[in-house]
Each structure stands twice: as C-alpha cells, then as structure tokens.
Design goal:
Chain lengths: 251, 333, 260
C-alpha cells in the first residue's frame, strides 16, 4: 500500500470548502482528494464539521463556497436529474443506519432500485439483487423482518447492504461504528474491508474512532477548526509531536 | 404483495361506502326539495307577500305539497309567485282553489296555503294562475253597504230640509199640510229611507254572517285577519254600524207614524198646525236621524281607513267619479 | 421591557412560521403537478390515514350523536318540540359539529402521527437517505401525505356524520319510540344542499390543513428526540388553531354564497 496513490486524477475532490451556520463557521476552507481504490479516513472531534462536509459532498447541504468534484462533475452546478444519476455512483452509510422504519428489510433494499434500476440498465431481477446484497453482509435470513426487529449491528449491516445495492464506486461512511459494541464494530469494519476488496470501491470514512481508523485507513486527514490540520498514514500521525494530534490519538 | 392488495381492498370499500353515503344523502335531500321528482307549476298574484321567501313551503289543506320557486314583480303593485307542486297532488287542487299567505310555527316562516272552495271545477294544470284571497267576495258586500249608507245620508238631508222648512214656517204651515204633493214627497222620502235602512240592515247581517264564517273556518281567518287586533277592530266597527242602522230604522218608523197621523187626521189640521209639540217632535226625530247617520258615516269612514278595505274604497271612489261624469254627460244630452 | 421584546420576537417568529408554512404549501402545489407521481405510496397513505382512522372517527361520532341527542332532549321536551330533534341534530352535526369534531380528532391522530413520523425520519436521517437514493422525499413523503389527508378527511367526515346521526336516531328510537325511517325522513326533510355541500367543501380544506401542518412540522423537525416530540405536539396545536380559522372563513363564505 503506497502512501499517496499517485495514479493520475482523484475520483473525488474537495477544494476550499466553506460552510457556516449563522456566525458559526464550521468549515473554513477544507480540501480533500480521494483516489481510486483508497480508504481515506477523515477524523475530528464531534462538531468539527465532518458530517457537514460529507453532506455537502452528496448535495444534502449546499456549501457556501468551494468546489466539489466527483468523477469530473462539479456537483454544485448539477441539475436535480444529473445529481440523482451521479448519486448512484455513491453509496452512503448513515450514522444511525437510517433504515426506513415503515418498510421491511426487503423494501428498504428495493427502495434505491425503484428509481434507478432502469436508468442504470441493470439486467438482474430486483429479488436477485436484494438477496445478493444481503448475502454480502450475511443477513439473508432477515429479509422479511422490520427494522425494529433488528439489533444495532444488524441494522448497520442492512444499511450497508442498501448502500451497496446500486454497486457504487465510491462509498461514504458516516461514523460506521458509533453506537456499537467493540466486537460488533470490529465485525462491521471487517465487512467494510471485505466489500472494498470484492468490488474495488473507494471509501471515504468519517469517524472519531481511532481503532477504526487504524484498521481501515490508507490515509488519514485530521479535521480541526474547519481546516485540514494534519494529513498522513496512521503510523505517521501517531508519531507526530503536534499537541493537537497527540491529544487526539491518546484517547 | 398480498398485504398491499388487502389494504387496497379495505381502502376501496371505505371510499365506496363513504361516497355512497354522501351521494345518497344528496339524493334524498334533493328528493325532498322536489328537484328530481315531477312537479307542476302554479302561479298566484299578490299585492303583498309578507316576507315570503324562495323555498318556503306550499300547503294544500295543510299538507306540504311543494315549495315557492319564484317571486317576481309583475308590475308596480302585483307580485307573481310561482309554486312548484308535486305532480301527485295535482288532481286534488281544483281551478277555483284560493292561495293565501300565512305564517307557520313559532319562528314565523311564511307559507302559502292553498284552500279548496266549494263548487265543482276542473283540476288545475301546470302553469295555471289560481285566485288569491284579496279578490274574494267581500267586494260585493261592501259595495252594497256603501251605497245604502250614501242613500241614507241623502234621504236624511232631504228630510232635514223639509223639517227645517216646517220649523221656519216657510210659507204657511197650512200650505205645508194641505199641499198633498209635499206631503207625498215627505212620505216618499221616509219610505225610501226606511227601505234603505232595511237594506243596510240586511247587508250588515250578511257581513256579520260572513265574519262569523271567517271566525269559524280558521284557515280563512288566518289570511284575512292576520293579526287579531285588526280583527277585533273590524268586529267593533261592524257592531257599531249595526247599532246605528237599528237606530235609523226605529227613527224612520217613528217618522212614518207621524206622517201617517198627519194624513189620517184630516180634520185636525188646525190642531196639528197649532201643536208645536208635534213639530218639535218631528224636528228632534230628524236630529236623531241626522245624528245616527253621522255615526253610521263615521263607522263607515273607520271601515274605509282599515287597511284591509282601503284599496277597495279607493277603487270605489274612482268608479263613482266615472259614473258621475257619465251621468252629467247623459244629463246634458 | 424584556417581556415586550419577547413579545415582539415571538410575533416575528409567528409570522415567519406562517410565511414558512405558506411556502411549504406552494412547494406542495408545485410538486403535485410535476412527475414522478408516487401513486403506490399515496394509496398506502390513504389506507393508513383514512382506513385506520375509521374506528376512532366512528366511535367518536357515535358517542357525539348519542350524547348530543340525550342532552338536547329535556330542553326540547320542555318546549314540546321533540319532533324538531331530527332536524336540529342533523343540521348541527352536518353543518358544524361533525366536520369540526372529526377534523380535531384527525388532527390529534393523523396530524400528530405525520409530525412524529416525519420528525423521526428527519432526525434519524431517513429523509436524507431517501434523497441520496434518488427519490424526492418531498414528493414521496409530503405530497402523498397531504394529498391523502385532503382526500380522506371528507370521507371520514361523511362517515362520522352518518354514524353520529345513527347514534342520535338510536336514542330517539329507544327513548322516544321514533322509528329509524321516520327519523331519517325528518333528517332529509330538514337538510338542504346548502347544509351538505359547504360542509363537504370545508372538509377538504380541513384535510389539507391537517396534512400540511403535520408534514411541515415533521419535515423541518429539530434534531434530537425532543424535536420529534415537539414536532408532533406543535402539529396538533397549530392544526387545531388552523382548523378553527378555516371553519370561521368557511362559515363566512358560506353565508355570502348560500344565503340569498
């Protein structure tokens, strides 16, 4: 694993991203490049703007200024239809799984397909796709359960299956291990690695869980005060003499 | 999938049921308002509809048979009311039926009452105009009464003139008495007065009977004497009329007696002429007649003032003027 | 001083909220006219909002008719006007009490339900997840719910009115020995189109208001579980207020158009 995967252009790029809520300047010029096949971890304390950054990335929030480029498309200027199409390239694992409570696991997984299956010209049967996705996370037997009947870890897996169902090339993880016990967290991390190996996806992971970062990261960006404070591999950062960096990794 | 189908079924049943409820409610309401059933149209002309409104009920002998469907001014004074009547009731309403406006219940909704009248006539057909109350028979009665009254006044004036002459001793008393022409004149006048008094009495009796009838048949009472106050007043006026008329008859009888006395006692001419008492008697009798005629007139005037009859008297006046003109023209010829 | 400032800021917030809700309504009308249409979800919402409320509306309506008749009976009997019972009850229920009570019940059930559901979906990022999945959550969640509420409420109100009249007829039948046929004959004699039609039109607006406010409060729910509770609570409060405002306007308009 090379430190800076230098193979040509980044698949995802953020330049000088700024976002504020009233007088609260959350992001003050954040930069990021995600290369193909890479697992990039963005770390930072709660409220440091990680979630805001990732939401700007998929167009759930509008940035005040800055450029966000995904596969050569500037998402800030895209129309709704084009944005929707681009979003099929991105899987998004939400912090609290965000499974639709009123739907069964099957319906949850079918949901992204209902608009995109034709557009993406997916040949496979909807059922086949759903079963395959569930098989990937090892939860085939839960297909007709409701989300309330699932444990936290199972929910996270189903959510992961849902994020993967359109076979995206980029996966965004928003705090994939929060709220889970360490063992389940480890299982999820293993799953993430397995998926990355199987499909060759690029991942952007947001977390404040150092263990998670250590296991999965190729590269880590430390987000402090709305800017990239430090950048490097886990080993590099853990050896850093900087006070802030040290404080972060000590936990 | 079967779950979704089940939901659809339940939803479908619910939607159909509720829509059916609404539609049938609307249908039944419309049915009640005779919007969907077959109807005939009847018209009636009124001078005053007393706040009748569209949609007010129309009753035939007390049964709801339809609603008021149109109210429009025909001309300055006449209002045409169109009624929507259930077709099933058509055969029962005869052409001589009478429409009147009355009020109904505590709240005072106005209604139209259609009342059957005696006599055999054809049933109405759609578009017919039926009579309304204000045009029924009272006209004739009142005409007679008025004429009688005027006659009485006229005759009394004649009598008065004669008695005045007697009292003033115009010419000689002897001349008065011996002048059989004059005496005949006097007698004639008195006979006429008597006759007209009897006529007046008769008319009053008729009027009385009529009012009694009014009181008996409540439905008609409603329409004429809408409020009991004016009904009472009418009754009083009529009884007054009756009273003064009786008086007149009595007095006329007295007069007649006097005249007869004069004629029969041929030899007692001197006695008569000298008997101041008799003359005074005649005189006071005449004054009595005058008085009672005046009262009769007053009552008549009151009757005229009563709003129910006002229109009628006005019409009468116009008629009279016309007659007078005709008369003078004929006289000239 | 502090209180007056507070009052001013509250007033401003109030008007801002009204403006927001209006914009939300405009957005609804725009969204409903443009494809894609979420028919399946609309049907599902009609089932949830409409069918699932039948029992509640039915029971309340029945009790309403029952109680209303029982309470009015002594007074009417005093005036010897028992025969007016059907007309009085039917006109009050059809014109006013039925729609308003049913709408308030539905504001409590449907409005708070929508507020809580959308609120929790917002808080747990389900709405974001939908957006990312290429489904317009406004169309999928809001448009379907408002439309379903607008369509279902008139039906529920008709249903509730019918049950209430049935309850009233039952009392008259048991206590006054009036047959159902006679009772309903009297009812239809008393009712006119100007009683039923304005009430039905009004109930569409009631449904729209319930859906609109519930969705608005839920869709813009504040973060956290407290936010969800507030959203559902405020949905009921605002809806109830709005219902009375609509009712007032409706009566006003009805007066102009139906009383010649």
């Amino acid at each position: 694993m090379n430190k800076y995967p230098s193979n040509n252009k980044p698949i995802l790029e953020i330049k000088n991203l700024k976002k504020s809520f009233g007088n609260n300047h959350v992001l003050k010029g954040f930069n990021l490049k995600l290369f193909e096949g890479e697992n990039l971890v963005v770390m930072g304390k709660s409220g440091s703007g990680k979630s805001v950054m990732i939401k700007c990335l998929v167009g759930l929030m509008e940035a005040d200024s800055g450029v966000i480029r995904i596969k050569e498309n500037d998402i800030t200027v895209l129309g709704q239809a084009e944005l929707d199409l681009l979003r099929t390239e991105i899987g998004f694992l939400f912090q609290g799984s965000a499974l639709y409570d009123s739907m069964t696991v099957r319906e949850n997984l079918e949901f992204p397909l209902r608009r995109h299956k034709k557009k993406l010209k997916m040949e496979e049967d909807t059922d086949t796709l759903v079963v395959e996705a569930l098989d990937n996370v090892g939860l085939k037997e839960a297909i007709d359960l409701m989300p309330v009947e699932l444990s936290g870890g199972m929910k996270r897996r189903v959510a992961l299956a849902r994020a993967l169902i359109l076979k995206p090339t980029i996966i965004l993880y928003d705090e994939p291990t929060t709220g889970l016990d360490p063992i389940t967290a480890k299982e999820i991390i293993q799953l993430m690695r397995g998926i990355q190996e199987k499909y060759g996806t690029s991942s952007l992971i947001i977390t404040h869980d150092v263990d998670c970062a250590r296991v999965i990261s190729n590269r880590i960006i430390l987000l402090v005060d709305g800017i990239n404070y430090a950048e490097g591999s886990y080993e590099e950062l853990i050896r850093s003499e900087d006070v802030n960096v040290k404080a972060f990794f000590k936990q | 999938m079967s779950k979704a189908a089940n939901q659809k079924l339940k939803l479908g049943i619910f939607v159909m049921l509720s829509t059916l409820l609404l539609v049938s409610a609307l249908y039944f309401i419309g049915n009640r308002q005779n919007l969907f059933g077959k109807n005939i149209k009847l018209h009636a002309l009124f001078y005053n509809v007393n706040g009748l409104q569209l949609g007010n009920n129309v009753r035939f002998s007390g049964i709801d048979v339809g609603t008021v469907s149109k109210i429009a001014m025909n001309n300055d004074t006449v209002i045409r009311v169109e009624m929507s009547i259930r077709e099933s009731i058509q055969t029962h309403i005869k052409k001589n039926a009478v429409a009147t406006i009355g009020s109904d219940g505590l709240v005072g909704n106005m209604i139209i009452n259609i009342l059957p009248r005696e006599g055999i006539t054809m049933p109405v057909v759609s578009g017919d105009t039926i009579e309304t109350y204000s045009r029924i028979g009272t006209d004739d009665l009142l005409t007679t009464l008025n004429v009688t009254n005027e006659n009485a006044a006229l005759l009394t004036a004649d009598l008065l003139k004669i008695t005045t002459e007697i009292v003033e001793g115009k010419g000689t008393l002897g001349m008065l008495i011996t002048d059989s022409l004059l005496a005949d004149d006097l007698r004639q006048t008195i006979v006429q007065l008597k006759r007209s008094s009897v006529a007046a009495n008769q008319t009053l009796a008729e009027l009385n009977a009529y009012f009694k009838e009014v009181r008996q048949s409540e439905s008609v009472a409603n329409l004429l004497l809408t409020d009991s106050v004016s009904g009472e007043k009418m009754k009083r006026i009529v009884s007054n009329l009756e009273f003064s008329s009786d008086e007149m008859v009595e007095i006329t009888a007295g007069m007649s007696q006097v005249i007869d006395d004069i004629k029969e006692s041929d030899g007692a001419l001197n006695y008569l002429t000298n008997d101041k008492d008799l003359v005074r008697n005649i005189d006071s009798t005449m004054i009595n007649i005058k008085e009672s005629t005046r009262r009769f007139n007053e009552n008549m005037e009151a009757l005229k003032q009563n709003f129910l009859f006002r229109g009628y008297f006005r019409k009468l006046e116009r008629q009279q003027k016309r007659d007078e003109k005709k008369q003078t023209r004929e006289d000239r010829n | 001083m502090a209180t007056s400032l507070n009052l001013i800021s509250r007033t401003i917030t109030f008007f801002e909220e009204i403006g927001d809700i209006t914009l939300f309504a405009i957005r609804y009308f725009r969204a409903i006219l443009m494809p894609p249409f979420e028919f399946k979800e609309l049907l599902r919402q009609c089932y949830i909002l409409g069918y699932r409320s039948i029992l509640l509306v039915g029971v309340t309506g029945f009790i309403l008719g029952l109680v209303f008749t029982l309470q009015s009976r002594p007074t009417l009997m005093e005036f010897g006007a028992e025969s007016w019972m059907p007309s009085m009850v039917s006109i009050s229920i059809v014109r006013e009490i039925g729609p308003v009570i049913t709408a308030l019940i539905c504001a409590g059930k449907i409005g708070s339900g929508i507020g809580a559901e959308l609120g929790s979906m917002r808080v747990t990022e389900q709405i974001d997840a939908m957006e990312v999945s290429g489904t317009n959550p406004f169309k999928y969640l809001v448009v379907t719910r408002i439309t379903a509420a607008t369509l279902m409420l008139p039906l529920l109100i008709v249903f509730g009115d019918a049950i209430a009249l049935f309850g009233s007829a039952l009392v008259e039948n048991l206590k006054g020995g009036v047959s159902f046929t006679l009772y309903f004959n009297k009812v239809f004699e008393a009712l006119s189109f100007s009683d039923v039609i304005p009430a039905t039109i009004k109930s569409f607006f009631f449904g729209f208001a319930i859906g609109l406010v519930g969705c608005y409060k839920g869709y813009y729910c504040k973060k956290g579980t407290a936010g969800v509770g507030e959203a559902s609570n405020m949905a009921v409060v605002y809806t109830s207020m709005l219902l009375f405002v609509i009712d007032f306007i409706a009566v006003f308009v009805t007066d102009i158009f139906f009383e010649v």
